[in-house]
Every structure is written in structure tokens, then in C-alpha cells.
Design brief:
Number of strands: 0
Transmembrane segments: 47-68, 75-94, 100-120
Distance between the termini: 36 Å
Strand content: under 5%
Order of helices and strands: HHHHHH
Family: Belongs to the DoxX family.
Organism: Pseudomonas benzopyrenica
Number of domains: 1
Keywords: Cell membrane, Membrane, Transmembrane, Transmembrane helix
Membrane topology: Multi-pass membrane protein
Length: 141
């Protein structure tokens, strides 16, 4: 029973975190890309387009992968990088209260990077399917 609760917790964490990041940050940037080009901070001096492109990648594509549970640990890394840059470089003057959403997302995606997606994920399903097919093929030989 404990394993089921843990996997349900990881599913809730994946869907909740991915949904929040996508809705609050990702979709507004993607849907208003041209407008956002004039607003985006460029702390690494890469240019507005590459900076915004990376932000959209980290805040749209990565949360979708995480919600599905596909390449979850890998998909957390761009998000973690983006959050650290935002909190430590772009907004170092923010108090803990002002940056609490970013810090909470950092904890959430850091946890998923450490744990992986859990049993209720596309990754786990494909691993189970592959193992079942391998087991079946061995039984035939």
C-alpha cells in the first residue's frame, strides 16, 4: 500500500508542478512570443530570442514531458537551471516571500529530478511492456 501512495504522490507532484509552470509561465510566453521578446531579461547576454526560446522550452516542452512521465529527470534539468538563473541572477533582490513560487518550483522539480516519475508514468509503462515482451520472447526460445 505504501508504494501505491508514493507513486500517486509522485503523479500528483508531476501533474501539479507541470500544470502550474505551464499555465503561469510557459503558455503566456509561448502565446505572446513576439511581445515577450521585448520584455524578457537576458542575464547571460545571449540575445532576446535564444533566451526566450530556452524559457519556452523549459516552461512548455519540459512540463509536458514531466506530466507524461517521459524523460522526467532529464526534463527537470532545464527547469532547475532556469529557476536558479531567475532567482539568483535576474532577481537577487527578491525576498524569500517575493520569490516563494520560484523556490517552491525549485523544490518540486528538484524532488522529481531525484526520484523520477514513479510507477504511473509513460516511462514505467514502457519499461514494463519491454520487460514483458522480453520475458515472452525468452519463453518462446
Amino acid at each position: 500500500m505504501g508504494s501505491v501512495r508514493l507513486d500517486l504522490g509522485l503523479l500528483f507532484l508531476r501533474l501539479g508542478g507541470a500544470g502550474l509552470l505551464l499555465a503561469v509561465h510557459g503558455l503566456p510566453k509561448a502565446l505572446h512570443f513576439r511581445q515577450q521578446l521585448g520584455l524578457i531579461e537576458d542575464p547571460l547576454h545571449l540575445g532576446a530570442w535564444p533566451t526566450l526560446g530556452f524559457a519556452v522550452f523549459a516552461e512548455v516542452l519540459c512540463p509536458l514531458l514531466i506530466a507524461l512521465g517521459w524523460a522526467t529527470r532529464l526534463a527537470c534539468l532545464p527547469i532547475l537551471g532556469l529557476l536558479l538563473i531567475a532567482l539568483l541572477v535576474v532577481h537577487p533582490e527578491w525576498s524569500l516571500e517575493q520569490g516563494q513560487f520560484g523556490w517552491l518550483l525549485l523544490v518540486l522539480f528538484g524532488t522529481l529530478a531525484l526520484t523520477g516519475p514513479g510507477r504511473y508514468s509513460l516511462e514505467a509503462r514502457l519499461v514494463r511492456r519491454h520487460a514483458a515482451q522480453g520475458g515472452f520472447a525468452r519463453a518462446l526460445s
